């Protein structure tokens, strides 16, 4: 097993343990960012001029009435770039301060993402295999959690500082749509 796959497996196990521990420890069961819930999202976001689609499974728990913690894992499909594809998978952990509103809830937060990128051109795919790299990013986030029963919409903006692009910051604008599970 490659070092990147071992790292990803370890991060997924850490995230799973965190989900279990926070679910057992959470005392706040209502309102909040999304309350205490698991949910699936499909989204679209732009990093600078590149388009990405996302499919995530997440779990949010409320640490207090105004602080939420999100654990997640996802697959992110990059639009074809000049020389191939830019896809990645990984896990995320984020903390959010919110205003504890029922339907439209503004929030601000800080998150970390760890995963692997798969940058692949047609020639690489055919002859050599795709390039796989570990990546880590830190991002402040500002957005709205719009919740209608088990359905929700999350428009957001992020400033991502990632090892994937040489440490340069990138602007991220996105929209996630999901439902509770």
UniProtKB/TrEMBL annotation:
<protein>
    <recommendedName>
        <fullName>Outer membrane protein beta-barrel domain-containing protein</fullName>
    </recommendedName>
</protein>
<feature type="signal peptide">
    <location>
        <begin position="1"/>
        <end position="27"/>
    </location>
</feature>
<keyword id="KW-0732">Signal</keyword>
